Amino acid sequence: MSDMITADLVDLDLSADTKEAAARALAERMVSLGRVTDLEGFLADVAAREAQMPTGLDGGIGIPHCRSAHVTEPTLGFGRSSAGIDFGAPDGPADLIFLIAAPAGADDAHLTILSSLARQLMNTEFTDALRSAQDARTATALIRGEEAPAATAEGAGEDTAAASGAASADAAAGSTVQDTAAPAPAPAAVPAPAPGPAAAGTADATAGATEGSAVSAAEGGAGGSGAAERPFRVVAVTSCPTGIAHTYMAAESLENAGREAGVEVVVETQGSAGFTRLDPAVIAAADGVIFAHDVPVRDKDRFAGKPTVDVGVKAGINRAAELIGEVRGKAERGEATSGAAPATPVERAGDSTEGYGTKLRKWLMSGVSYMVPFVAAGGLLIALGFAIGGYTVNKAPSVMDHFLWTQADSWGALLYQIGVVSFGFLVPVLAGYIAYGMADRPGLVPGFVGGAIALTINAGFLGGLVAGLVAGGVVMAIQRARIPAALRGIMPVVVIPLISSAIVGFLMFVVIGKPIAAAQKGMTDWLNGLTGTNAILLGALLGLMMCFDLGGPVNKVAYTFATAGIAVASPSDSAMKIMAAVMAAGMVPPLAMALATTARGRLFTQTERENGKAAWVLGASFISEGAIPFAAADPLRVIPSAMVGGALTGALSMTFGATLRAPHGGIFVVPLIGNPFFYLIAIAAGVCVTTALVVVLKGMRKQAPEATAAGTDPAAGPATAARDAEHTVAA
Prior knowledge:
Layout: E1 10-11, H1 19-32, H2 39-52, E2 56-57, E3 61-62, E4 65-68, E5 75-85, E6 94-103, H3 108-120, H4 124-132, H5 136-144, H6 150-153, H7 158-172, H8 197-219, E7 233-239, H9 246-261, E8 264-269, H10 280-285, E9 288-293, E10 308-311, H11 313-318, H12 320-333, H13 356-389, H14 408-423, H15 426-439, H16 444-456, H17 460-480, H18 485-488, H19 491-511, H20 513-528, H21 532-548, H22 553-566, H23 573-599, H24 606-620, H25 628-633, H26 635-656, E11 659-660, E12 673-674, H27 676-699, H28 705-711, H29 716-730
Parallel strand pairs: 1-5, 3-6, 4-6, 7-8, 7-9, 9-10
Antiparallel strand pairs: 2-3, 5-6, 11-12
């Protein structure tokens, strides 16, 4: 820990009043020490993590953190706020703020030390000592583990100190198991020491803990208590998107709550530092399971057949005792999962309030997010094949039979044929991962089978959507059935794939396949027949949708509609026009905001002007999210302006008959665009209109620019942009 934090990284009088400002203040200290190379880029990564889930915790703690390519070495900044800063914790503002910066390729040793700090934040003696620290050096020593909190040091004998040291070693190793024969020692008061000679002891402690878990499970609670009197046993898995802080804090909270309730809790922490799977004997001996996670639990089927509570990781931190009581209640009532338990967020108890419309959207977006990379790869390869080999490249013989290294036509044919193979996966991948979003891994087989059948019967993209939903529904129904214990082990591998594939295949071939194929053909014929006013109106509508939420669900619907049309080896002219209109409209908002900040900078805050510089590149690359910082700060002026410009661009693109074979790329694929000159004119027209509207509307505001700047969150732009850009990449 000593190499991660120094007194220069501690601010005991943090004056920031927002979480973004707090992160910036601590990050600036990291920049001054050369530990962060790009302040704005790093803050964008911090904000993207914050957007996934608030990092505020009960007890007045905020732990903004991320892994970033802009971090040169693992670094920890600490700030103490007298007024408190809202980090989204249920109990109010945080006064202790820890900014954790981990490099994108941080090694496990550093990550485990950071995880040990996360565990210590659940220790009130540790946090109280930080609140009473008089200077930065004292606070630094406490965090490093060089000085014990006074409450722990007073009256502590050698045995207590030894127990605390053992617990620290276990925490620093990111241990995923603990001895279940007896309650674990009290949590350490300070984080474990930095890597060095003590690291070997840390590893030994972890190994010993793992071995102890297996032995204690085999003994069935021996040591003075009979088997019938043994404590209730719980195994748990914790994980969070970054795997640095919340993962280990939830583990510590569950373990502490278990000790207070007389329940043996063994936790598997699936964090960034890797994880050690719970011993099968420990799982077999457990009476219940708790999943506290925000990313899928790895190898979740190991826990099938046991009473299970499935929640988000924040619930594991804030409601640990309640979760233990809930899983005990399920065990007493005999409620157990049958087969492989659902692993997707929409099936978790934490999301029980969501309606079916929200769940359906998540399921569909799950399939689309896995499909789009195939679209991008296949579409760009096919487009490059046409660019290199000419428009007859689709008639070229197989490159297996005819390929000349020195001929451009052969290379064009190679790229085209690779792209065609990539496109062949689109519908099966779409269907398979829709089913996966509904029913986890057991849904993959019937989903892929249904998607392949959709291609066979010419049901296309629409058939893949239906096949995925049907496959997921069939698997979910099978999972809810009561299964004899003897069959549970083979359910995910044999029974579910066999039965579900047969049912989905029957439905697709015999029952619903033909109507879907007819509907797909009708939609294709309608698109191919679009001319004149109808085509222009469709372009305007798609432009409006692309600019409505800038990377959100409506934007994704328009984009998916366009990519589905070109997701064939030989897309129709109408489909390529739609793709061109969608990409052109999506480029307008960020380019317009960049132009507006350049032309009338005084109407924007300093942060917005900086975001405007980045928006030039984002807009040119067809990343609509570049405009989100501006829309978030002033939605009533920016979003309507962007929609008007996007609608104009979409309509003009359709009017000019511009075509596009590639699903992405912005100006970098202009050579692949049909009628490129007028295509760029359409984009320029939309950008100018949006810019003019934004400037006029902002100029009509009564408040002065200084008041606007004071009321604008200085870091909201990078935060929102990073979050939605990540979603776009994921999709």
